[in-house]
Amino acid sequence: MRHALIFAAGLGERMRPLTDHTPKPLLEAGGKPLVAWHLEKLAAAGVHYVVVNTSHLAGQFPEALGDGSRWGLRIRYAYEGPTPLETGGGMLNALPLLGDAPFIAVNGDIHSDIDYSMLPNEPQDLAHLVMVDNPAHHPAGDFLLDAQGRLRAEGAPRLTFSGVGVYRRELLRDWRQVIGDTPGVTDQPPRFKLAPLLRAAMAGGQVHGTHHRGAWTDVGTPARLAELDGRLRR
Length: 234
Hints:
13 strands; globular; alpha/beta
């Protein structure tokens, strides 16, 4: 059984005022919430169990998604508290619900035609990330994908991380040592970003990736949400 995690705890500050009363992953595009597109695709890819991490307006997620049975899924909710834990802290907080096997993790505020069934059940190393062409709002990209399919934090040309990946829980094993004494690490539960852990793993050649050349949208602003909604409705 494949497990998946959906990051849905962000405050959605760039989407205000839309997110004043609705969490960003529950904003609609093409007639359904952004997160529902992910749930459909995860179910189609053979995932049966999904953890949704929540913080901002957390109570709306169970109301909107229920137990997941309408998609043939079982949904569990990992509440992070009133302050989101960032991607690293959020993943660490959700690990007890995700089991020991590698799992898919998806940002709840993106939309794409990435086929989740094509993701590896077992990443070659600690993580496998799906990369996309750099959008206009992020021209510098994030990581270099080399000819062997490994991702590197340094070098060019860079691609942008899509927000879709497969992870082994061992990526987080030495998180405190890698993260250091940044603000939030002593909170309970701890709050930290995932990117430093990925960069450290890349330095050891332990992150692979693929280049997705299809549709992908980071739904980060009301304008991008409106554009996506119009495209999906067409």
